[in-house]
Protein: Metallo-beta-lactamase domain-containing protein
Amino acid sequence: MKGMNGHIIAGTSICVDYWLWTPDQKYLHFLSHLHADHTVNLKSTFTGYIYTSPFNSWLVKRWFKIKPELVVSLSVGASHVLYEESSQSHFSVTLLDANHCPGSVMFLFQGKFGNIFYTGDFRYNPDVLEHP
Structure:
């Protein structure tokens, strides 16, 4: 199946739905949801950390047999502060419900690099305007 190759935030090691990597790369991997076009090249041999929603955390371990200690569950609707090694700085990521499929999220990244809103796949719902 041909699919997307994900995205890397320019000048950082932060990537979303991007699973082309080598063990020497120190990416921070974020997973928006588990549809096939967003998990191209994700395999059970993956050895990086994956940051995602609680539902996706459970599902990626079950479907892809990713080692549980590599999957980090982040609460939806809350901001989380993480450290990005390549820039030696902290950034925040907020997960927002994408209303696309169970567990699907959008990511708002904020740091030295600016503000980046990654939507992945989402379905508009008027409630989104109530919780910007």
Observations:
- The two ends are 35 Å apart (CA to CA).
- The chain has a mean pLDDT of 81.
- DSSP finds two helices and nine strands in the chain.
